[in-house]
Specification:
This is Glucose/arabinose dehydrogenase, beta-propeller fold. Pfam families: TrAA12 (PF22807). Helices cover 5% and strands 37% of the residues. The protein has three helices and 31 strands. Strands 4-31-30-29 form a four-stranded antiparallel beta sheet, with no helix packed on it. Strands 5-6-7-8 form a four-stranded antiparallel beta sheet, with no helix packed on it. Strands 9-10-11-12 form a four-stranded antiparallel beta sheet, with no helix packed on it. The chain is globular, with a radius of gyration of 21 Å.
């Protein structure tokens, strides 16, 4: 039996006073009682493995694997540690570097699929997420949100702080920002820890605010670290990719695709996966795991544990020169930066999340092959993701300082 799957199973186990996991779960030999009136015990086989970093040579890039008709090539390189991307309607590419505290503008002026102009257009300590809304650039650092005018030449005016006082970073400092179909600003705030009772209620949440930064409130909580998120083009529903808890073994906790709803709670740090109990931390006071599970929204879809999802965009391009095949329209594309808390690497790829009837149903590979030398080395950890006006797709690698371009030719 699992440590808990459904309330119907749970009720029979409560009478015994504890839950026992089986070989399917990485947490094993576990006794996880509903209350602290009995001891909690669990064993976990935790692993650390990070492939060595090697150069992104032409030969290595040539062996990357994509579906038929797709190609991938460098759009720009020598960028340090590029992270998140956004693209204007005119094709101006903006990329952040949290390490350098910069926003860089890149242009492909001769339309050959490669950047030929580069210019730093903003300097903000710890800047990470960025987006364009109503003709303005919005940028987020650990504690603050800024807006800036976009000049006719693509450069930015002086960023103006419109929000401050976001929670301290801790383990997850990479804030992201986006605007929904409702015109509100959405902000992701990761947890400060792997699994803990957060003292700040805004940690491990998605926040919502007005475009001018006022009216900030918690929109959804119990989300360990949801960096990539977006709205389905047809249903207008918000989906996010949440990072699973570390140190639960090679295959737990799986990464999550969550349907994010106003006021919903997603289980962290007490409930994970399809209803499993996390041995530590325990619920506080007289609260039981069962009570927390009853109010938890479980994931819509799960993916390989520790793959580290970073960005997610819904693909909508059609008719442009490099547009993907029609069946990609309204599917989500996502970057998986790659594992470290696992004996064999997971992630290190770009994937396609298939949606049917407006719901996620499976995940397929789009770009693979960054892990080389019999899984002992890697030359790319995908992070940022953005679609170009010509239908191509850009993604960043923050290890070798490259932005790649995926294009399709019929």
């Amino acid at each position: 039996m699992k440590n808990v799957v459904k309330p119907t199973i749970l009720s029979g186990l409560i009478a015994a006073g504890f839950l026992v996991s089986c070989s399917k779960d990485e947490v094993f030999n576990a006794q996880i009682p509903e209350t602290n009136q009995q001891p909690t015990t669990a064993q976990v086989n935790g692993n650390v493995f990070e492939p060595a970093l090697v150069a992104a040579t032409d030969a290595r890039i040539a062996q990357l694997r994509l579906p038929a008709g797709f190609t991938v090539a460098k759009f720009a390189d020598q960028l340090g540690k590029p992270r998140m991307l956004t693209v204007s309607e005119m094709g101006s590419v903006y990329v952040t570097s949290r390490a350098a505290g910069t926003v860089t503008l890149l242009r492909d002026t001769n339309n050959d699929g490669k950047s030929d102009q580069s210019q730093v257009v903003a300097t903000i300590k710890d800047v990470h997420g960025l987006t364009i809304f109503s003709g303005k650039m919005y940028l987020i650092s650990i504690h603050d949100v800024y807006s800036a005018t976009i000049n006719a030449d693509g450069t930015l005016g002086t960023p103006q702080k419109i929000m401050t006082g976001l929670p301290d970073a801790g383990q997850h400092p990479n804030r992201t920002i986006g605007f929904g179909p409702d015109g509100f600003m959405y902000i992701t705030v990761g947890s400060t820890c792997n699994a803990c009772a957060e003292p700040n209620p805004e940690s491990a949440t998605i926040l919502r605010a007005n475009p001018d930064g006022t009216g900030r409130r918690i929109y959804a909580k119990g989300l360990r670290n949801t960096i990539g998120f977006g709205w389905h083009p047809e249903t207008k529903e918000l989906y996010g990719l949440d990072h699973g808890i570390d140190w639960l073994g090679d295959d737990q906790q799986k990464e999550e695709v969550n349907l994010i709803k106003d006021g919903a709670f997603y289980g962290w740090p007490y409930i994970y996966g399809d209803g499993n109990y996390n041995p530590h931390p325990r619920p506080m006071g007289d609260t039981t795991y069962a009570q927390i599970l009853a109010k938890t929204t479980l994931p819509s879809l799960q993916y390989d544990a520790h793959a580290a999802p970073l960005s997610m965009v819904f693909y909508t391009s059609t008719g442009a020169p490099s547009s993907f095949p029609a069946e990609y329209r309204n599917d989500a594309l996502a970057t998986m930066r790659g594992s470290w808390n696992r004996s064999q690497p997971s992630g290190y790829k770009v994937v396609r999340i298939h949606f049917e009837g407006g719901k996620p149903v499976r995940v397929d590979d789009l770009v693979t092959g960054f892990v080389v030398d019999n899984n002992q080395a890697q030359f790319g950890r995908p992070v940022g993701l953005a679609a170009m006006p010509d239908g191509s797709l850009l993604f960043t690698d923050d290890n070798n300082g490259v932005i790649y371009r995926i294009s399709y030719a019929k």
